[in-house]
Amino acid sequence: MNAYNNVEKEIVVPATVKNEFKKLYQKGIYKELHRRKILTDIQLESLLSKNY
To answer: What's the rounded Cα separation, in Å, for the pair 15 and 21?
Structure first.
């Protein structure tokens, strides 16, 4: 049995990394919605051009 089984570690992610991940995640969702024809070209461009 490993001695590591019951060890809990807290991983701290900087706010800037969290924000960048959120932006990339949102853009990926928008692109997928566009690929599925749920968003138009204009809607996609509008969403991608926003600065969050």
So the answer is: 10
6-23 per-position pLDDT tens digit: 778 899 999 999 999 999
pLDDT, position 1: 53
Token pair of 25 as six digits: 């995640």
Which tokens go with 12?
Answer: 């701290």
Q: Is the dihedral of CA 34, 39, 41, 42 positive or negative?
A: negative
> Cα Rg for the chain, rounded, in angstroms?
18
pTM of the model: 0.72
Q: How far apart are CA 49 and CA 21, in angstroms?
A: 17
Closest by CA to 48, choosing from 34, 30, 32, is: 30
